[in-house]
Structure formats: structure tokens, C-alpha cells
Amino acid sequence: MTNRLIGPALVVMTLVMAALAGCSFKPDRQVWEISGPVFGTEYHISVVMSDDKERLKALSKGITRTLDDVDASMSTYRKDSELSKFNQTEDQSDWFAVSAPMYRVLSDAQRVSRLSDGAFDITIGPVVNLWGFGPDARPDQIPDDQTLARVLAGTGYQKLTLREQPPAIRASSHQYLDLSGIAKGFGVDQVARYLTDAGVDDYLVEIGGEVRVSGHKPDGQAWRLAIEQPDSGTRQINRVVVLNDKAMATSGDYRNYYESNGHRYSHTIDPDTGKPITHNLASVSVITDNCTDADALATAFDVMGYEKASALATRENIAVYFIVRTDTGFETHYTPAFTSYLADQGGH
Q1: Is residue 52 part of a domain?
Q2: Domains contained in the chain, number
Q3: Is residue 136 part of a domain?
Q4: 155: domain range?
């Protein structure tokens, strides 16, 4: 696809696949890789199955169709997408019919917004564009406080109302919605659902660092993945996790940013201030049952910063891994719910 759903990948999740090589495989089952460009990043999908080239080809085509459907619905880079059509509607006070998948994503987004007290907010799109992290060109200068305050005042997830049957959305004032903090995770879930419906029980789906796994590798072991060290200059592993029928999403500010007049501006915008985050949380990884939730929660926690995010995640029993910048390097912290996923703690 030439149009992007989101900008460049925030975090590249290293897949620890060393165990996939060697003679421990069952002779009739092995890992097959399917990959390609999507949403301004790439997808890498591993399926465990016997040697069946025709079935593999059919799965590849089905994956492409599935991702095309998500892009056609939720991309802000496509003027003809379902999302863009709502954004282009002048009077949004009337009900605007949406597809069932769109309603599901909007509903999940609003739930995370309420949980995080607005740290996650899909109406923040105009502010994201103002800072040059949306589909528009990067601005020649940093937005001034007056312009920023005016644009920010028009946003707010509370201004949206959803209707489940028939699925529809409306807004009390004109809104420009940006689903880049949740749609990539939804894309992972849609591919996972497609593979399950196609009879594939063992797989790993990864899109730009967001991952969902099912079943096991051919040797019967769980999937192992690595959380990357949040250093823009190197690619190193910080921690290995073990997943079984779970999803993980990571958000961080060390891949997608720009510098202007000696200042570094993160792609992650705080909906409360309308400005890029400046705290010391470098990376946050969230494990949940589905990648849609993990993606949105990782974004919310990234905005909140370590202290607030850790308190909320612990209270809600959410598995979260934090990497925090300090004057002497990185510190790692994790919630009690995350402990059992760590490879050096035995994993699941």
C-alpha cells in the first residue's frame, strides 16, 4: 500500500527466532514467513504449518486483503478512507454511519480515554498535525502558544458520542480523528482473526513492533520476543518475554522525533498540554489479550509518564514494562502482572 495509516514505526520489536532453526523441528511442520510494507512500516508474520505452497500463497493474499481493509477504513493518509470521510464532514452533529470494525475501534479508544483520564485521545489529530507528525508536511516553525491553545481548545474525546445499533458517531463540534495510536494494534488483531478463521493455530503477527501470538513454535515452546533498548543509535535487547496467546505493544519516543533549534520534539503529544512529552519515560510495553487494547494503553501510559502510568497499571492489574531514562542510563520497572512473562522468571 502506498498510503500510510501512521508515521514511521515507533519501536521495532526484535523477534527472538533463534530457536526456530535446527533439528528440533517436527519434520512435517515448520515456520513460514510472510512480510511486506503496510501503514508506513512493515508486517512480519510467522505461521507454523506443513509444506503447502498453495495454502501459503492463499494466506498471503488473505493477509493483504485484511490489511487493505483496515487501511481503507482508518487511514488519515487516504482521503477516501472511512475515517477521512468523517473528518471531512462539515456538520458532525448528525449521526454518521460507520462500519462495525470502525465502531469497535472507536469504542475501545473511548474506553481507554476514560480509563486514562484523557491521556489517550483520538481527537488530538489537529494538534498532532500542527507539530508535523500527521499526514501534512512538517511545519516551517514550531507552533506558537496562541495557535496551539486555539487548536487544542477544539479537541476533546468527550465531544464524541457513539451509537452501537446501528453503528454511528457524532460530535458536538467539528473533530478531526486520528487513530494512529490504536489502529495498528487493531490491524494485528484482524490478521490474527483471519489466520484463526483460516485454520492456522500457531502464528506470530507483528506490525511495526506490535505483536500478537497464538499457539506454539514447531518445537512446542512458547513464542519469545525481545523488548528493545530505547536507544536511537543502537539496536540492543533490553529484556526477553515469553508469550502464549497474548499481544504486546510498545510505545516510545526514541525513533519518531525531530529536532529544531536545538530542541528535540517527540511524536507523542500530551492531550492535556498539546505539546510533545518531555518526561523521562523512554519506552513502555503492555501485554493484554488483544493488540488493540495493548496499542492504545501503551500510547496512554507513554503520555502519562512512569509514576502515573505505573500507579494506574498496577491498580488495574495490567502487565506493563517501563524503561526510564536516568542521568546514569536506563532503569527498568514492571508491574506485578508483568512478572510471569519475563523469560528469566520462567515465563508462561
Answers
A1: no
A2: 1
A3: yes
A4: 74-171
pLDDT tens profile 98-123: 999 999 999 999 999 999 999 999 99
Mean local confidence (pLDDT), 133-151 = 77
Q: Quick one: pLDDT band at residue 131, thresholds 50, 70, 90? A: confident
**Residue 181: closest CA among 298, 308, 277:** 298
Asked whether residue 147 is domain-assigned, the answer is yes
Is residue 99 a part of any domain in this protein? Answer: yes
Work out the pLDDT band at 233, boundaries 50, 70, 90.
low
pTM above 0.85, yes or no: yes
Give the residue-averaged pLDDT of 69-75: 96
**Cα–Cα distance between 214 and 207 in angstroms, integer?**
15
β-pairing verdict for 319-326 and 168-171: unpaired
What is the rounded distance in angstroms from the CA atom of residue 266 to the CA atom of residue 58? 40
What SS3 string covers 44-107? Answer: EEEEEECCCHHHHHHHHHHHHHHHHHHHHHHCCCCCCCHHHHHHCCCCCCCCEECCHHHHHHHH
Mode of pairing for the β-strands spanning 96-97 and 257-260: unpaired
CATH number (domain holding residue 116): 1.10.3980.10
Buried b (16+ CB within 10 A) or exposed e, 151-172: bbeebbbeebeeeeeebbbbbe
pLDDT at 171 over 90: yes
**pLDDT confidence of 278, banded at 50, 70, 90?**
confident
Q: Which amino acid is at 188?
A: V
The length of the chain is 348
The rounded distance, in Å, linking the Cα atoms of 71 and 6 is 10
